[in-house]
Amino acid sequence: MQQLIYTHILPNGMTLLAERLPHVRSAAFSFMVRAGGAYDPVDKLGLSGLLTDLITRGAGELDSRQFSDALDNLGVDRSESTGGINLHFGGVTLATNLTPALKLYADLLQRPHFPEEELEAVQALAIQDIQNLEDEPQSKVMVELRKNYYPDPLGRDQRGTEAGIEVAKIEDVRQHYAKHFHPSNVILAVAGDINWDMLRKDVETLFGGWKEQTPTAYPISPLTGLEAKYVHLQKDLDQTQIALIYPSVPLVHPDNYLARAAVGVLSLDMSSRLFMEVREKYGLCYSVYASYEAFQDRGSILAYAGSRPEKAQETFDRTLHELKRLPEGIEEEELQRVKVGLKASLIMRQESTGARVSSLTSDWYYLGRIRTLAEIQQAIDELNVSAILDHVKRFPPKGITVVTLGPQPLKV
Amino acid sequence: MQQLIYTHILPNGMTLLAERLPHVRSAAFSFMVRAGGAYDPVDKLGLSGLLTDLITRGAGELDSRQFSDALDNLGVDRSESTGGINLHFGGVTLATNLTPALKLYADLLQRPHFPEEELEAVQALAIQDIQNLEDEPQSKVMVELRKNYYPDPLGRDQRGTEAGIEVAKIEDVRQHYAKHFHPSNVILAVAGDINWDMLRKDVETLFGGWKEQTPTAYPISPLTGLEAKYVHLQKDLDQTQIALIYPSVPLVHPDNYLARAAVGVLSLDMSSRLFMEVREKYGLCYSVYASYEAFQDRGSILAYAGSRPEKAQETFDRTLHELKRLPEGIEEEELQRVKVGLKASLIMRQESTGARVSSLTSDWYYLGRIRTLAEIQQAIDELNVSAILDHVKRFPPKGITVVTLGPQPLKV
Predict the structure, then answer these.
(1) Domain boundaries in chain A?
(2) Cα–Cα distance between A151 and B313 in angstroms, integer?
(3) What Gene3D superfamilies does this protein's entry cite (chains A, B) (predicted)?
(4) Which of A240, B143, B347, B356 would disulfide-bridge A312, Cβ 3.0–4.6 Å?
(5) Residue A215 carries which DSSP code?
(6) Of B208, B241, B217, which Cα lies nearest the Cα of B106?
(7) pLDDT, tens digit, for every residue of B101-112?
């Protein structure tokens, strides 16, 4: 099955990516803007989150309420998010409503009002979001893990700080917008029942007049993982939250598929090692997983487990043991399962317009091109045990940062 | 677009439902078995959850590990869940792997091993799941809300109790299985790129020999919501969790669409009243919503808000105010947005095989037939303000049960 993938860079630098999925009736779209938490001024951490919330509160000729109503009238299931590096604005709607929805987002991106009278409510929400985290230990431990492992600004929690949010003025939000919202910082991806020529013309009409500026630089910071580190956060909880992280390869690295396959052996499905060895065999913890995450210049392997305090030490030891013994060998059968799992999720993901939009954006952002499903399938087919073992020997669990949150520290 | 929907009841009483979605490559399947938490013996609460976990640990000729591997080899993205009334076992896979996957589930449902040596680990996991709840205040308050509102056994938390889980023996699991796992208690739904004649033949071959028994009765208990009730649970949290519930109509009731539309006015998208009035206008809370839930014999309206303790009283008051003022009037424009929102989500849901399987099962279970999308769209089109207002006047927020979890009680 041939994929219908299109890319176009507008003369002002804005990128448009699209995939036609002729058998669906919906269309998903996503604007990614390089203006995330890493670009917050150090005394105003949380500013980009305030912007993300305020930017939807009125744009073009519509005030806050009218703008929200207009999107809802089109049945747009919308979402906004603040990331470490990028902000995301997007939604899913019926393909027939795509053009009017993009028209509203053209206003949102180019002509937002940032109403001062709504700033206080937005600040209150942002502060609540930070306070909520105290009641969500599983999220909290991951936030603390990244803070302790990545150098600033990569390790920041995009929620910011209460102090930073409180001092921010509407002028700060407007300055952050003026500095980072311009076409060369924006990738728009669309997937669904689209007509490429019409979409391209629409986007040129709606965004072609946006003034060009130099793209925002990627925040340079030293590579991590040179030294092991352990941080315990004391809290009276019923579960001990355990998280760890160590260096792997970035997405653009030729070893990328090998890194993912190695994580797959540990944690892909219910036959994977962590689930089987730590959860099923010993009933040590309810939840345990490993995952891979990447920035443009680096990648990492993360692992998480939540366990009763009296079993936390054994849970940690067994999890670490599974990570460390990976270079010792992988069964051919395990690899086959990982291949099937990776391919099945790839093909099933293809059926959702929202997932396709994420893939288009992510490929373009990290690799500068869009991989076809056939290319990814072929790379998965070519995986073999010896190449994966070579990779895990080259990138063993070293320089591990461990963070625990709970009633007692562990021996690490 | 005509829908290709099929239903068939096997001579032994098992129900098969299917929908052909010719443009996808995946197939989703779900077995619903009437054997949930409401059927646990009172001194062994949590038994059905133990069964749900143990039943995947070996069946037919495969032991625990082999069974798990066999599913993973087919790329089945599987899930099991224990509900109040029903258990669910299902997954999504490539349509080409559907038959071998159903073959494995035929073993799981009819020939499970329930290995005694794995019971202890399963009990440990179940107890951790209960203990986890203490660190998840938002889930905890909803569990306590249902416990306080619905009469036993409907109000039970399907997680059970530590005492109930600890005393359960493998014989109890086997007895629960023998009592409830028979064809007339089972609905199998499949959606995807299927061939109905082949599927039906496969299912008859795989499940036709399963011995018929009388279906398990629905657990009768008195109707709820006659008296208002307030319960506060003291806990040192950074957020006060607020939940409330009151009676509405069951799914089979002719007012069902009216009840959903009324909840839609309150809480469907970002223009809805609760989000606008409680969250956006005053920044009182980060999360606030209302929803509708139904059992076979009753329905309820629920509302939730999580707020900083010092703003909890105002959050509660404003939320309640929005519920109470609904009968006073609904703007035509609000209804139009609800109609667009309900229809858009309906059409977009249609694109996921997993969502279609849930709809097939739910329609059959609650209504005894399967609604086409055209029928639901027509019912949504016919909604009008005066009918919704009549409905909310007949089913106002009365006999409300309120549960709060946090540092201080509210004035209710």
Answers:
(1) 4-207, 229-406
(2) 41
(3) Metalloenzyme, LuxS/M16 peptidase-like (3.30.830.10)
(4) A240
(5) P
(6) B208
(7) 999 999 999 999
Write the CA distances from A171 to A56, A63, B124, integer angstroms. 17, 19, 54
- Stretches in chain A below the pLDDT threshold 70: 1
- Would you state the structure tokens that stand for residue B274, as one six-digit string? 């609760």
Amino acid A119: pLDDT: 96
The answer, for A252 touching chain B at a CB cutoff of 8 Å, is no
* Cβ-defined contact of B285 to A128 (cutoff 8 Å): yes
Q: Give A93's contacts in chain B (Cβ within 8 Å).
A: 344
- Whether domain B229-406 has CATH 3.30.830.10: yes
**Which segments in chain B show pLDDT lower than 70?**
1
Inter-chain CB proximity A352 and B347 less than 8 Å: no
Supply the pLDDT for residue B349: 77
Q: Is the ipTM of this complex over 0.90?
A: no
- What pLDDT, on the 0 to 100 scale, is given for residue A348? 80
Phi, psi (deg, nearest 5) at residue B190? -135, 135
Three-state SS string over chain B comes to CCCEEEEEECCCCCEEEEEECCCCCEEEEEEEECCCHHHCCCCCCCHHHHHHHHCCCEECCEEHHHHHHHHHHCCCEEEEEECCCCEEEEEEEEHHHHHHHHHHHHHHHHCECCCHHHHHHHHHHHHHHHHHHHCCHHHHHHHHHHHHHCCCCCCCCCCCCHHHHHHCCHHHHHHHHHHHCCHHHEEEEEEECCCHHHHHHHHHHHHCCCCCCCCCCCCCCCCCCCCCEEEEEECCCCCEEEEEEEEECCCCCCCHHHHHHHHHHHCCCCCCHHHHHHHHCCCCEEEEEEEEEECCCCEEEEEEEEECHHHHHHHHHHHHHHHHHHHHCCCHHHHHHHHHHHHHHHHHHCCCHHHHHHHHHHHHHHHCCCCCHHHHHHHHHCCCHHHHHHHHHHCCCCCCEEEEEECCCCCC
| pTM for the whole structure | 0.88
Residue B113 sits at the vertex; the CA angle it makes with B109 and B118, to the nearest 5 degrees, is 120
Domains B4-207 and B229-406 equal at CATH topology level:
yes
**CATH homologous superfamily, domain A4-207:** Metalloenzyme, LuxS/M16 peptidase-like (3.30.830.10)
For residue A16, the distance in angstroms to the closest alpha carbon of chain B comes to 24
